[in-house]
Amino acid sequence: MPGNEGPASGWRGPDVARRRMLVVAAGGVMAGIASLVGCDGGSQPATAPGGTRRATATAATATAAAAAASPAAARELVRPSASGGPRHPPGHPAAHPRATRKPVLIDESSPGRPVFYLDDGPKVIALTIDDGPSPVYTPQVLRILEKYGVLATFSMVGENVSSYPAIAREVADAGHTIINHTWDHANLTALSASRQQAEIARATDAIHAATGVHPRMFRAPYGAWSRAALAYCARERLIPLDWSVDPRDWSRPGVSEIVSTIMQTTRSGSIILEHDGGGDRSQTVAALKVVLPRLIGEGYRFAIP
Fold first, then answer.
1. Whole-number pLDDT of residue 120
2. Looking at the structure, do residues 27 and 134 belong to the same domain, yes or no?
3. DSSP single-letter state for residue 81
4. Mapping DSSP to helix (H, G, I), strand (E, B) and coil, where does residue 67 land?
5. C-alpha of 66 from chain center
6. Do 54 and 157 lie in a common domain?
7. Which residues contact 296 (CB under 8 A, 6 or more apart)?
8. Structural domain of 261
9. Do 107 and 120 touch, CB atoms closer than 8 A?
């Protein structure tokens, strides 16, 4: 009867079309993952930071393709990897357990992505100091930086700023940059979106109250970035700042180990992570006395991200 005939012999229905779309999306996801981990077609990682703009554009294209066909797959692309999150109970004193290779993302045309490298030319690097201010170690760090004419970026915890506002002002008055590191060094991935925003906003208020400056950058504790935190940074025009050299000074591995890691892994564009708060930072202070003159002697120049 008319209207009751089966489908034409050459017609394979919407299921096939859906399967084709998912296959294309899966290919885009795999291409995006390859770009994010720094592979350039083969098994060798792409160099950093020279070829990063193409890698960033490829990743963004793959993410968009995945999102169009499978939102769940797109979410997987921005979630921290298993090695990127905390490997110990979060909280203060602070620790940064991550020392894995990160995607090279220095092009600000891709919003919502953390910055891992500078792009200011050869031999330009950045020094970042986390988890202060500390009444014991921050003044020592400031004296070393002044001796060698180095400007650094201090990632400050809001509750420490509220406890030691005069030290925060001393950092700002010396010409260094202060950025937001949450109120109490929280692991943002374990919090609701509203609590994440409160952590960041409260720290901004504390920094402004102490120094008169509104921070223009934010660093997630533990390097554990969440979608909500990155979205909030975009709305508030905060640059999400990560790092690319981690000597794990927070674990107090010994001065020689801290020095060795920095000297062996620093390259043009590196963002070095050190600490002045969250515990005993005497090894960090001692290591800075060694690495700063060595890096300067090798022709490196320090800049603010």
1. 93
2. no
3. P
4. helix
5. 23
6. no
7. 148, 150
8. 124-302
9. no
Q: In the predicted model, is pLDDT for residue 214 greater than 50?
A: yes
Question: Which one is catalytic: 96, 130, 185, 276?
Answer: 130
- Residue 47, in any domain of the structure: yes
Query: Whose CA is closest to 269, among 154, 153, 116, 130?
Result: 116
**Residue 305 contacts residue 115 (beta carbons within 8 Å):** yes
**pTM surpassing 0.85?**
no
* 275 in catalytic set: yes
Q: Determine the distance from the C-alpha atom of residue 6 to the mean position of all C-alpha atoms in its chain, rounded to a whole number.
A: 57
Q: Which of 246, 249, 275, 276 is catalytic?
A: 275
Name which of 127, 104, 125, 123 is nearest 115 in CA terms: 104
Q: How far apart are CA 244 and CA 175, in angstroms?
A: 23
Neighbours of 73 (CB within 10 A): 19
Top pLDDT among 211 and 45 is at 211
**Which two structure tokens, joined as six digits, stand for 158?**
């809001």
pLDDT band at 112 (very low <50, low <70, confident <90, very high): confident
Identify the residue with better confidence: 5 or 116: 116
Predicted local confidence at residue 292, as pLDDT: 98
Contact 243, 116 (CB under 8 A): yes
Which of 264, 273, 271, 267 is closest to 299 using CA atoms?
267
- Is residue 87, in this structure, part of any structural domain at all? no
The pLDDT value given to residue 81 = 33
Q: Which of 29, 45, 187, 57 is nearest to 102 (CA)?
A: 45
- Which one-letter amino acid corresponds to residue 110? S
